Fold:
Amino acid sequence: MGAGPFALAPDAAEVLAAEDVRNISLSEARTTEVAACSDLNRQLAREVAAARADGVLPVVLTGNCHSQQAVIAGVGGDAVGLVWLDCHGDFNTPETTETGYFDGYGLAMVVDDPSYDEQGNVREAALELLRRLGRTSRA
Structure:
């Protein structure tokens, strides 16, 4: 998984005046990316749920495009906001991907079916923009 968060964490903790910074790593060696994501996501969901139970707003820095699933699972409920900062759109599905790259599905997986919306025209325009961003970032 990406190492960017390790570079940002010390400064982010200082800026946020965070008293409790936690690093999550694989509980054991995994042979596939899907298994590694599942392992990390289970741990992260538990940490986020524990933080919320303590009345703390969790700020998560991650180097994996699927960690938002764990954050949303840990927060629970339907009224969840997500700030997505990534150089890729990560809004592909098995039907829209050009590469089959698993990390390209990350955001689409948490917003339900990206092909359905009562205001489909707006959604399709956004999807096209995200597809173009995805193609550009792979070049």
User: Anything to note?
Assistant: The helical segments are 4-16, 33-53, 67-75, 106-110, 120-138.
